[in-house]
Specification:
Number of domains: 2
Order of helices and strands: HHEEHEEEHH
Distance between the termini: 26 Å
Strand order of the largest sheet: 2-1-5-4-3
Helix content: 55-70%
Number of strands: 5
CATH topology of the largest domain: Beta-Lactamase
Largest sheet: 5 strands, antiparallel
Number of helices: 5
CATH superfamily of the largest domain: PAS domain
Strand content: 5-15%
CATH architecture of the largest domain: 2-Layer Sandwich
Structural class: alpha+beta
CATH class of the largest domain: Alpha Beta
Length: 245
Amino acid sequence: MSAPDQDVPDIKVKKLFRKTTFGVFMLFGVIGLSTSILNVYTVDTHLSEEYISNSKGIAKTIADASVDILLNRDLAALQSLIDQFLEIQGIRYIYITNESGEFIAHTFVPGIPEEILQSDPLSTETAERTLTGLGDFVEVGSPILAGVAGTVHVGMDRGLIALKIQRAIGQQMWLFVVVGAIGVVAAIWLVNLAAKPMAGLMAYAVSLAKDDEPANPELLDRDDEVGHLARLFRHFASRQSTGGQ
């Protein structure tokens, strides 16, 4: 009878420890996953809005600067103008069409992609495009003289946005990993702290059941649930020893 009784405290404490620790791990996992999803969405949204806003500003700048050039029919100067804007980070292509939809200047080499040729050249709505061999882009447009003289289209590279998202999320994840590791270690320590008096209580109960001297009599002085249970165990043990009187 004594051997099974001695095994009881270890099994109970370990089971409590495993469940609590598993719950802590699950909690940190849920927090980490939800935080990562929120960060990706937030960074993606903000960066996309920022790049689209900048691209619209660039398109409007080109449209305003193109008026005199178009009036003078100086297509070489127009081509030189849009080539300069390609040096801005994130801008991958620019093309300009006249009022009839004819391409009069562009930065595509060696030629205009088929996806661009099949699109509406006069539309200035923001659109997402996938160009074969080039990648994914967000295209914005701006009218020249309210569309009377044509439109300017600017393509922004979405790959650059994805790269910036990875860098931003990577830095945040390092911080989360450090905080999570500290939190898990602290949680395990706190669980052990809670499990230690429970193990002492079980050992105390086993000692009373075997009519031995209690191994941890200071449990009786505790003013918590462990102390209450220890005193309750002692009460039942004393009643049993006196024949239930």
